[in-house]
Amino acid sequence: DISTGLERNGLSLVLFIDNVFDERAINGRYTECAVGTCGAGPEGIFYDVVARPMTGGIRIGQRF
Hints:
Blueprint: E1 2-8, E2 11-18, E3 26-30, H1 35-38, E4 47-50, E5 55-62
Antiparallel strand pairs: 1-2, 2-5, 3-4
């Protein structure tokens, strides 16, 4: 992740890019039912929780 920004007179502007190299990391794995019911191994039903893809944007803020 990278970001850069400015702040002046209570206003802030930040440019950011998350997951710069667009890595498809697996953050977790789960099943919807017990392994004994769904099965285990390659025939079982597992779901992966993956990292978000590369995302960029602008954040604008103001301090009161």
